[in-house]
Design goal:
The protein has about 600 residues and is α+β, with helices and mostly antiparallel strands. The protein contains 20 helices and 17 strands. About 40% of the residues lie in helices and about 15% in strands. The longest helix has 26 residues. Pathway: Sulfur metabolism; glutathione biosynthesis; glutathione from L-cysteine and L-glutamate: step 1/2.
């Protein structure tokens, strides 16, 4: 959700005039947060996931499926519905998203430290879809809420219901195929974000995704809609708007650490897991109606959300603000920060002088290199010291694979949290719960056994790139640490082990085996999730991306030309709907005996 606020968003020129002042406010607020919260101890292990869901409408007669622009109408009804639910375990917190065909659902209360909470995740995710589906069904039996990481023909042809007008005059970013009417009318900051990103960048967004070259794909392949765009590259699918990225859906998990120091350690150990989990979650092989050579969304949003000017893009060491995590945070791991990203020196010095450890000060010093792309006028000049708006605003406008979330000044209950952000959304609740619970368990396993998987940032970034490659879960090797050695390992070795390394799933099984406080149902459910992760890494089950790709390649009307037609999309999304609602099995992505004992209520 990021930071949502009502009020008038400032224009980019207005923000530009106030940048220095805004930065000073933000740094001072961060210092205040640090002094107030640095000694928090023994905060509970609470945690929660965020699921982004896509609204679609089927037109069965014409074999079409389109994105349904209806989130702004559904959200007030969803809020009302949940206000009336007494049992908190059955309540969902719904948030608007950037695009009006997406809603975000999170558990109303974060999950607690009891192991039985692992068993509630899937039921909670199912409830989210059921709540929306029920409202949709009151109006039409053609409307569905689905987990789709990137809608296959997003940006191609007439892809929305209701129909909207396309063309550069319908877009502040001058996009040819992503008009402003995609943007949620009730998300106060997205419109301003896309305007200000466009103005700051001084030019159009440019995303080039390598096409999957099939036997009848033209060579070179040229995305004809963009034939006059100087940014178009041969053999690439092209996207030209930030909305191309904001329309993708992800799965995020936030963990509260027991203390400030604990949050830094947790963050550092989650860094090497980001590319691993991105690879396992891969679910995006199709872009703008073409099969691509990538399997995940991350680098695509990264390019779409990039607000750097042409000059800044020439400077190698500043990346898109949507990018991999640039630094380890603890002094102990600073030797692994082997990429030289710029920092605001004055900010770093000021933070160090306030007692903030040097490595962490550099992380924040890099954060403050970024401009706040959205500012709400009413919050520009703080009236008192009661909140940390400017720090949180900036922190929520930089989209790294991990986010350190310090406690907000105006919430005494909240502790230091780390958000895990790389994963693509999965087609099924089972898949989303499995990955969520696996990451949550990994945090416990790493801390309990004092494991250390940290490798240099440059190798983590290389792993991020490899994770995007077609079928990376089976084909790629990734840098991974076992003991004092870093070697390149297949996903199967990382997850299931080899002669030198026990494997992340066996380590998790050991941890589960040693804990005596886990009830039988939770144990059973967790084992199904571990099986999914294990088999995906072993290649005996497919990633969502591989399955989607195979569906297209084997479709009767596919012409070996990389084109995903309306008809193929209709059949694919229909199939996804049947699978996610349990009407059809899909043994390539989930064995039919992988049933869980999930329950909305923790013991
Ligand atoms: P954002 O979009 O900024 O990441 P959201 O409010 O959408 O923030 O999601 C925050 C996530 O953090 C949710 O999954 C929520 O359950 C979880 N969460 C909220 N409070 C806590 C807490 N005290 N400890 C751990 N997780 C929390
Ligand atoms: Mg959110
Ligand atoms: Mg979101
Ligand atoms: Mg989030």
């Amino acid at each position: 959700m990021g930071l949502l606020s009502e009020g008038r968003p400032l224009k980019w020129t207005e923000i530009k005039d106030a940048l220095k002042q805004i930065r000073t406010y933000g740094v001072d607020q961060l210092i205040q947060v640090y002094h107030k919260c640095k000694n928090r101890q023994r905060d509970a292990f609470t945690w929660g996931d965020e699921v982004e869901l896509t609204l679609v409408r089927f037109d069965h007669e014409n074999k079409k499926v389109q994105l349904l622009l209806k989130a702004h109408k559904l959200l007030p009804a969803l809020h009302k519905l949940n206000e009336e639910i007494q049992d908190e375990a059955c309540r969902i917190a719904w948030h608007p998203e950037a695009c009006d065909f997406v809603v975000e659902g999170v558990p109303f209360q974060p999950y607690g430290f009891l192991p039985s909470h692992f068993n509630t995740v899937e039921a909670n995710m199912r409830l989210r879809r059921e709540q929306v589906q029920k409202l949709l069904a009151e109006q039409s039996d053609c409307d569905f809420i689905l987990n789709i990481a990137a809608f296959p023909r997003y940006g191609q042809g007439e892809y929305t219901h209701p129909a909207i007008e396309y063309g550069s005059s319908h877009s502040v970013e001058e996009s040819l195929c992503f008009p402003d009417s995609l943007i949620s009318p009730i998300h106060p900051r997205t419109k301003s974000l896309s305007e200000n990103t466009h103005e700051r960048r001084q030019g159009k967004a440019s995303v080039n995704i390598p096409i999957f070259k099939d036997s009848s794909t033209p060579s070179p392949f040229r995305d004809n809609l963009f034939k006059d765009d100087p940014n178009l590259k041969d053999d690439h699918i092209h996207l030209d708007s930030t909305a191309a990225g904001w329309g993708c859906c992800c799965l995020q998990v936030t963990f509260q650490a027991e203390s400030f120091e604990g949050s830094l350690r947790l963050y550092d150990q989650l860094i090497p897991l980001c590319p691993i989990m991105l690879c396992l979650s891969a679910a995006c092989p199709i872009w703008r109606g073409y099969l691509s050579d990538v399997d995940c969304r991350w680098n695509i949003i990264s390019a779409a959300a990039d607000d750097r000017t042409a000059v800044e893009r020439q400077q190698e060491n500043i990346l898109s603000r949507y990018g991999p995590t640039p630094f380890y945070l603890t002094d102990e791991k600073r030797h692994l920060n082997d990429l030289d990203f710029p920092v605001c020196d004055d900010v770093v010095q000021k933070l160090i002088s306030q007692g903030i450890p040097e490595t962490l000060s550099r992380h924040f010093g890099h954060l403050f290199v970024r401009d706040p792309l959205v500012i709400i006028e009413e919050f520009l000049h703080p009236k008192d010291d009661s909140n940390s708006y400017h720090f949180e605003n900036l922190n929520s406008l930089v989209w790294n694979t991990l986010r350190l979330k310090p406690p907000p000044l105006d919430d005494d209950l909240m502790g230091w949290r780390v958000e895990f952000r790389p994963m693509d959304i999965q087609m099924t609740d089972f898949g989303n719960a499995a990955l969520t619970v696996f990451v949550a368990l990994m945090t416990r396993v790493i801390l309990t056994y004092n494991l250390d998987f940290a490798i240099p940032i440059s190798q983590v970034n290389e792993n991020m790139n490899r994770a995007h490659h077609r079928d990376s879960a089976r084909q790629e090797k990734f840098y991974f640490r076992c003991g004092n050695e870093i070697s390149e390992m297949y996903m199967n070795e990382i997850i299931n082990g080899n002669n030198d390394f026990p494997g992340l799933v066996p380590l998790t099984r050991q941890y589960i085996g040693e804990r005596e406080d886990i009830d039988a149902d939770t144990r059973f459910t967790i084992e199904q999730y571990l099986l999914l992760v294990s088999k995906r890494a072993a290649g005996t089950l497919m990633t969502n991306a591989s399955w989607i790709r195979q569906f297209v390649l084997s479709h009767a009307s596919y012409k070996q030309d990389s084109v995903v037609t309306e008809e193929i999309q209709y059949d694919l999304v229909r199939k996804m709907e049947q699978i996610s609602n349990g009407h059809e099995d899909c043994p390539q992505i989930r064995q039919s005996n992988m049933e869980t004992h999930t329950d909305l209520h923790a013991e």
